[in-house]
Task: inverse folding
């Protein structure tokens, strides 16, 4: 978030400046659990490295999803692959929080990792937890034929998935209101001009949302030196450094 906002400001002041390769943590892509109790996401960092983050909405916590160094060592010892701790590539990642377990696939092999014991076990696909999505009546949803002409679904950050609630920022705080109208409900009261809430992310079941706050830092000088043979020109501006407080508040409707 910090680097994304800073880059946008720089691009508006200095058109043509290429910063695309330097934007990190500018967004998250939450991977929600079937029961909407938690989600995980991966931050892409400098040099192609990454970190896995787990957010538990029941406990209201955000933490590293697992010890990446110990997991990488265990994967290497198993012979399944050779991986660096900050460049883990895990497919079909899912969690059982109550059992402290992580499941994932490498190639055609399935594994289970205990987040407390730091123990890796190779398992059969039949040992994986249930992953089928279910309707409100508990029956599995029917799969639909793929249509390449249909764009991927992107959930709105303003309206809940069930379209019953809308979320918005007012006086730097997060509010919700029924889409049919009615009372505006404040979900936060600590937002300030220098530490304002941003549009939230809704859980798939519309019962939970998660919000960030952005804190601007000190005003500093930014300089751009343009050079061509026989000529050098410097441009300067005053620019606020942008800081993001990740997962500052977890809110449940």
Result:
């Amino acid at each position: 978030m910090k680097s994304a906002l800073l880059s946008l400001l720089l691009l508006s002041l200095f058109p043509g400046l290429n910063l695309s390769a330097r934007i990190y943590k500018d967004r998250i892509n939450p991977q929600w659990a079937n029961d909407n109790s938690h989600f995980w996401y991966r931050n892409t960092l400098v040099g192609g490295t990454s970190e896995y983050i787990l957010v538990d909405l029941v406990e209201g916590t955000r933490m590293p999803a697992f010890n990446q160094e110990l997991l990488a060592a265990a994967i290497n010892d198993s012979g399944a692959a050779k991986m660096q701790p900050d460049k883990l590539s895990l497919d079909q990642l899912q969690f059982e929080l109550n059992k402290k377990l992580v499941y994932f696939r490498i190639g055609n092999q399935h594994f289970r990792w205990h987040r407390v014991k730091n123990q890796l076990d190779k398992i059969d696909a039949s040992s994986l937890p249930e992953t089928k999505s279910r309707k409100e009546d508990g029956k599995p949803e029917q799969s639909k034929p793929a249509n390449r002409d249909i764009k991927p679904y992107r959930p709105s950050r303003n309206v809940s998935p069930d379209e019953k609630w809308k979320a918005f920022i007012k006086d730097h705080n997060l509010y919700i209101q029924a889409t049919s109208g009615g009372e505006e409900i404040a979900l936060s009261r600590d937002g300030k001009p220098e530490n304002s809430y941003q549009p939230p992310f809704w859980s798939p079941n519309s019962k939970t949302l998660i919000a960030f706050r952005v804190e601007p830092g000190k005003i500093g000088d930014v300089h751009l030196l343009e050079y061509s043979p026989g000529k050098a020109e410097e441009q300067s501006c005053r620019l606020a450094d942008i800081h993001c407080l990740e997962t500052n508040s977890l809110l449940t409707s």
Observations:
- The chain has two domains: 21-133, 156-253.
- The helical segments are 2-13, 68-78.
- The radius of gyration is 22 Å.
